[in-house]
Amino acid sequence: MSWEPKIVGFLCNWCSYRGADLAGTARMKCSPNVRTIRVMCSGRVEPTFILKAFQLGADGVLVLGCHPGDCHYTEGNYKTLRRMSLLKKMLAQLGVEEERVRLDWVSASEGDHFVSIVNDMTEKVRALGPFRQNSEEEKHG
Amino acid sequence: MEPKIGVYVCHCGSNIAGTVDVEQVAEYARSLPAVEIARDYKFMCSDPGQDLIKNDIREFGINRVVVASCSPQMHEPTFRHVLQESGLNPYFFEMANIREHCSWVTEDREKATEKAKALVSAAVRRVYYHQALEANEVPINPNTLIVGGGIAGIQAALEIADSEHKVYLVERDPSIGGHMIQLDKTFPTLDCSACILTPKMSLVGAHPYIELMTYSEVEEVSGFIGNFKVKIRKKARYVDEDKCNGCGVCQEKCPWTADSEFDVGLAKRKAIYTPFAQAVPNIPVIDKEHCAYFLKGKCRACEKFCERDAINFEQVDQFVEIEVGNIILTTGYKLFDPTPLTQYGYGRLDNVLTSLEFERLVNAVGPTNGKISLKDGTEPKSVAIIHCVGSRDANYHEYCSRVCCMYSMKFAHLVSEHIPEATVYEFYIDIRSAGKGFEEFYNRVLKEGTTFFRGRPGEVTNVAETPEEKGKLVVQFEDTLVGRQRRIPVDMVILSCGLEPQQDAEEVARLFSVSRSADGFFLEKHPKLDPVATMTDGVFVAGCCQSPKDIPDTVAQASAAAARVLALISKGKVEIEAATAVIDEEKCSGCRICNLLCPYSAISFVEDKKVSRVNEALCKGCGTCVAACPSSAITQKHFTAEQIMAELEGILV
User: Fold this and answer.
1) B139 strand-pairing partners
2) B window 256-295, beta carbon within 8 A of A
3) What SS3 state is found at B131?
4) What region does B61 belong to: left with phi over 0, alpha with psi -120 to 50, or beta?
5) B653 is a domain residue
6) How many CA atoms within 13 Å lie on the side-chain side of B225?
7) I need a labelling partner for A32 at 20 to 30 A (CA). Which of A97, B199, B242, B472 fits?
């Protein structure tokens, strides 16, 4: 089988996980590359989880939360937003392409939005190629 | 105890097995660390499926369980219960969602199977690190808050209060009654709306278990199921509720008027007013915006004539704090404003009315005492009713508002009843008359001689092209059954406007932490099986705030919400998630970063020890503090870093 991007998706329990469920219930077809991990709030996502994901062979990491203002925990997603922008700066310094990490918002009623994010992310990561290969090239550089 | 994991891969008939090679997934699971047994079965949620797990726990000493099936939103409670029945802690369970997130969204069998394996591997590695947890049990405060005093709120309030449990009914207008009290007749039985509603309103007003707060709005909500704290603003009425006996003299004497909201601007009301004669409570309010005393500092006519000294210009808004166990939102809808559809001329052409305006016009106690009249006072000889205004329209609302076909036909009947010689035309896209007695009513209106044209009008104009059209409103449309353009001159046009979310639905949703669906209405927990609950435990929805619906459906949903609340009250307690945060005081450096992060102020700083501490009763388990702690001193139970890291490792095999 040819190479397929492996993307880890951290989904909050209240909005985005349910949005993903809705995509399934409505039988919307989407690329199977995003594998989901449920957290109660996107605010639970530690930056180390994302680094660890890359270390373990992920080609991309997707973090999805409730839309700004709609967080089940009032403002957890704002904390995520702040944390992610810092992390993105750091990842850029480490040479990780910007498109490999994405923070976005999906509500419980947005199955179609979830699908479009997953498909878009998959294609962007596919275009970048495998993450490991990059580091290996660098290693043997 | 060394973990012994049992993995159960569900076929879900062909829902999963049709796309995922379940046997291969089970086979693969057997190769994973600490997996003792892996099976695949047709329906894991069925009794035999559950028995499989129970037997394995008994016979093989399985002490951790992974079920790969549907979303945990569906069956996590089912399987946790299975563990509990088998004497295991229910938290030694993990679900791999290989249906919604896998078989239903993937067509390629090979890729779906690959993904299912990864999800199972993640669940297995995660469950290895699960710890036994005890769900926290909290008592349910037996008081209930209901927000919105339309028919939904009235119904729910009465159901709960009749069981002798206290209800706070908050309504922002001066009286309860909602939209229903504005309506004339109700389809399809043609009961008079006020006649069937006012008895209920009176009951609410007099009920010993209902504390009615009209002219009031909810300002703040905190807490959680069983234990909400709510702050309510009681807007100043400038009338002392305890002194006023509702005699109405003040309204007679008040020299100032404003457009009546109740009569949607078709009539005037005084600056001190009750919205309508049967208002509950029958206590007026002073509209500051139109009161001469507030505007110019002079008048006070109402005060002079009030025999009970009930007028109080010094009154200020009051804040009341209440504690309730459950909340029902019954905030209703807003009628679509047809002004943007300029082609129909609403607001520009005389005798183009909205449906609510017509309701008031035809109402026996309305501004014309029930006489259907044109602006010049004469009776219309022909009336056009245009369906789907703002509904089923990509530019406004995609959804069908459900009630407009029926109320449009009710209008046709009422016109024929009031003016037998009048001709009525209905312009429809489709007739939607699904409901008890609805189709029969449609047939009745057909028999009464109403003409139905299938076609959405393109324009309503007063520009005449023929002598017959002179002085008339002309409806230009394509008669799609005949396949040609036609022009129909009429005297009056009624726009059957759709129902949309209240203007402040977004803020209200935030206030009560409920989600909204794409159309803006409040989102129910499950569209089929949990249509009255929301994602926030203890907050329920009923009526048109959830989606457009008619009165019978609203009443049914309100009763259902009341039943749900009563079930919780009768149990008296509820289990809440054990996934709270805990701080390891040994590791805590006392930096206090977490203190400020917590939206629930659940983390406090212990001065003498110089460490932070989580109040588990307040913690809702979001985990934001956990991710932020620079010393990794905070753990979220059931979402520990160890568990998530293990899950990551598994998902990326």
Assistant:
1) B573
2) none
3) coil
4) left
5) no
6) 22
7) A97
Same domain, B356 and B493: yes
Which residues in chain A are contacts of B624 at CB distance < 8 A? 41, 43-44, 73, 76, 79
Same domain, B34 and B46: yes
ipTM, two decimals, is: 0.94
Could you report the per-residue pLDDT of B177-212, keeping only the tens digit for each? 999 999 999 999 999 999 999 999 999 999 999 999
Measure the N-to-C terminal CA separation of chain B; round to a whole number of Å: 26
**Touching check for A132 and chain B: CB below 8 Å?**
no
Alpha carbons B442 and A111: distance in angstroms, whole number: 37
A-chain residues near B510 (CB < 8 A) = 69-70
Compare all CA atoms of chain A with the CA of B650 and give the residue at the minimum distance: A56
The answer, for B645 touching chain A at a CB cutoff of 8 Å, is yes
Q: Is the residue at B349 inside a domain?
A: yes
Give residue B588's identity as a one-letter amino acid code. C
Taking all residues of chain B, what is their mean pLDDT, rounded to a whole number? 96
Question: CB distance B624–A115 less than 8 Å?
Answer: no
CATH number for the domain that contains residue B59 = 3.40.50.960
Phi/psi at B6 (nearest 5 deg)?
-105, 130
Judge whether A77 is closer than 8 Å to chain B, CB to CB: no
Low-confidence residues in chain B, pLDDT < 70 = none
Q: Which helix (H) or strand (E) holds B65?
A: strand B64-69
Q: d(Cα B423, Cα B380) in Å, to the nearest integer?
A: 9
Whole-model pTM: value is 0.89
Interface of B with A in 492-551 (CB under 8 A): 509-510, 513, 515-518, 523, 535-536
pLDDT over threshold 60, residue A135: no
Fold of A7-140: Rossmann fold (3.40.50)
CATH code, B361 = 3.50.50.60
Question: Is A83 touching B (CB cutoff 8 A)?
Answer: yes
Q: Token pair of B69, please?
A: 């099936």
Tally of CB atoms within 10 A around B209? 16
Whether pLDDT at A2 is above 90: no
Chain B residue numbers with beta carbons less than 8 Å from the beta carbon of A19 are none
Tokens of B189: 């039985």
- pLDDT for A1 equals 60
Give the Cα separation of B184 and B433 in Å (integer).
20
- The verdict on residue B269 lying in a domain is yes
Query: Taking a C-beta distance cutoff of 8 angstroms, is the pair B515, B522 a contact?
Result: yes
Q: Which of A6, A22, A7, A74 is nearest to A43 (CA)?
A: A74
Rounded CA separation B212/B132 (Å): 45
Nearest residue to A119 via CA among A97, A96, A102:
A102
| pLDDT number for residue B629 | 95
Q: How many domains does chain B have?
A: 5
CA-CA-CA-CA torsion sign (B170, B175, B178, B181): positive
Residues B408, B322 share a domain:
no
Give the gap in angstroms from C-alpha B337 to the nearest C-alpha of chain A.
25
Expressed as residue numbers, the domain containing B362 is 336-500
Q: Are the beta carbons of B427 and B385 closer than 8 angstroms? A: yes
pLDDT at A141: 41
Residue A68, chain B, CB below 8 Å: the answer is no
What phi and psi, each to the nearest 5 degrees, are found at residue B425? Answer: -115, 130
- The encoded tokens of residue A118 equal 């997953």
CA atoms within 13 A on the CB side of B549: 21
Q: Do strands B227-234 and B318-324 pair parallel, antiparallel, or not at all (unpaired)?
A: antiparallel
Q: How far does the CA of residue A140 sit from the closest CA of chain B (Å)?
A: 24
- In B579-638, the residues whose Cβ lies within 8 Å of chain A are 579, 597, 599-600, 620-624, 626-628, 636
pLDDT per residue over A59-91, tens digit each?
Answer: 999 999 999 888 888 889 999 999 999 999 999
B647 at interface of A, judged by CB pairs closer than 8 A? yes
